[in-house]
Specification:
Elements: H1 2-15, H2 21-24
Length: 60
C-alpha cells in the first residue's frame, strides 16, 4: 500500500512542474504562427434518411 501512495505522490509532484506555456512565448517573435484553414468546396448534396444513423467521415 505504501508503494502505491509513494507512486501517486511522485506522479502528482511530477505533474506540478510549473511549466506554463504562456510564459514561453513572452516575446511575440517567438510565438508560433497560427495554423492556416484548409478551404473546401461542397460538390454535391444528396437527400438522406434522417432516421438512419451513420458514424464517421472518410475523405481522400
Amino acid at each position: 500500500m505504501i508503494k502505491y501512495v509513494a507512486l501517486l505522490s511522485l506522479v502528482i509532484l511530477a505533474a506540478c512542474n510549473g511549466n506554463d506555456t504562456e510564459e514561453k512565448y513572452i516575446d511575440n517573435s517567438i510565438k508560433p504562427k497560427p495554423i492556416p484553414a484548409i478551404p473546401y468546396t461542397v460538390v454535391a448534396e444528396y437527400p438522406h434518411d434522417t432516421s438512419a444513423y451513420t458514424q464517421g467521415l472518410e475523405f481522400f
